[in-house]
Amino acid sequence: MSDNQGRKDLRMPDDDEVFAVVTEMLGANRVNVRCMDGTERTARIPGRMQKRVWIREDDVVLVSPWDWQDEKADIEWRYDKQDADQLRREGHIQG
């Protein structure tokens, strides 16, 4: 494992999930995200994450867009800074 030391196996999106970057905090457990499929969405921070995972602007998250309303999504996962840098290096997310 010499050529990619420090590389972790990160949680990758399932079929219905996309990478996103938090662009704005809206309050009331909602954030604006810019998804890697080119769509801006309003994402909801689920109750299981509210007190345990702090989400800030410019965080890389994994969201699952709603089936019935494409401009909304639920946040499924937040990557820490090192993991986000690795995703950028490997070309999974832009910016």
Automatic annotation (TrEMBL):
GO molecular function: RNA binding; translation initiation factor activity
Keywords: Initiation factor, Protein biosynthesis
Domain S1-like stretches: 6-80
SMART domains linked: eIF1a
Organism domain of life: Archaea
SUPFAM superfamilies: Nucleic acid-binding proteins
Classification via InterPro entries: NA-bd_OB-fold, RNA-binding_domain_S1_IF1, TIF_eIF-1A, TIF_eIF-1A_CS
Family as reported in the entry's similarity comment: Belongs to the eIF-1A family.
Function: Seems to be required for maximal rate of protein biosynthesis. Enhances ribosome dissociation into subunits and stabilizes the binding of the initiator Met-tRNA(I) to 40 S ribosomal subunits.
HAMAP family: aIF_1A (MF_00216)
Protein name, as recorded: Translation initiation factor 1A
